[in-house]
Write a structure and sequence with these properties.
The longest helix has 15 residues. The protein has a single domain, classed as Glutaredoxin. It has eight helices and four strands; from the N terminus they run αααβααβααββα. It is an alpha+beta fold. β3 and β4 form a beta hairpin. It has a four-stranded mixed β-sheet with strand order 2-1-3-4. The protein starts with 13 loop residues before the first helix and ends with a helix.
Length: about 190
């Protein structure tokens, strides 16, 4: 299984890091072009309140919001989880990552979508491994998991029930909807 590498040094630029690792640990010749080389950054103003969509049991919003307040969104989801007993699923990823986008598409398919409805879902943008790393570090080990990485939190205690620290979803593009659904049903 290919895995993402977490930047060991902050001296590497996003482009150099992606050339070394790619989204799913692919070689420089086969990974997609890094976002910093092709796309302008989102310049929308940051929200001043936690996102309401991230704590809903429905399908997660498409993509990862660079301006969302990840810690506040997780706290809101945990508060809702304590009330209704559904666990919290945190999806760590980035829009530039093909495997993250494929996992998002899998979440939209009937089986995974039904299983996902049993969770409060929070999507957390890790950018080019330069955003929300403090939040991610509380729940997953991005050095070994790569992205997308998932963590399931217990609704009563807020403790991590499971995290994909071995890169279980780092090759999401090769996963079937049944495999994604099986993971979601196991931990719901």
């Amino acid at each position: 299984m290919r895995r993402h590498l977490f930047p060991i040094t902050t001296q590497l630029t996003g482009i150099a890091l992606l050339a070394l690792t790619g989204c799913a640990g692919t070689t420089a010749a086969s990974h997609e072009t890094p976002p910093s080389a092709t796309a302008a950054r989102d310049t929308r103003p940051a929200e001043t309140t936690p996102s309401t969509a991230s704590a809903t049991p429905a399908k997660p919003a498409h993509g990862y919001d660079a301006h969302a307040h990840a810690a506040a969104d997780i706290e809101a989801a945990l508060a809702a989880a304590k009330k209704d007993g559904r666990p919290v699923l945190i999806d760590f990823g980035a829009d530039w990552c093909l495997d993250c986008r494929v996992l998002g598409a899998r979440f939209e398919e009937p089986g995974p979508s039904a299983a996902l409805a049993k969770y409060h879902v929070v999507s957390v943008d890790v950018g080019e491994f330069d955003r929300n790393l403090d939040v991610a570090g509380r729940y997953v080990n991005l050095r070994t998991s790569g992205i997308p990485a998932l963590a399931v939190l217990d609704p009563a205690s807020g403790r991590t029930k499971t995290a994909t620290n071995r890169g279980e979803f780092a090759d999401a593009r090769t996963m079937s909807a049944d495999q994604v659904e099986e993971f979601l049903r196991r931990w719901a």
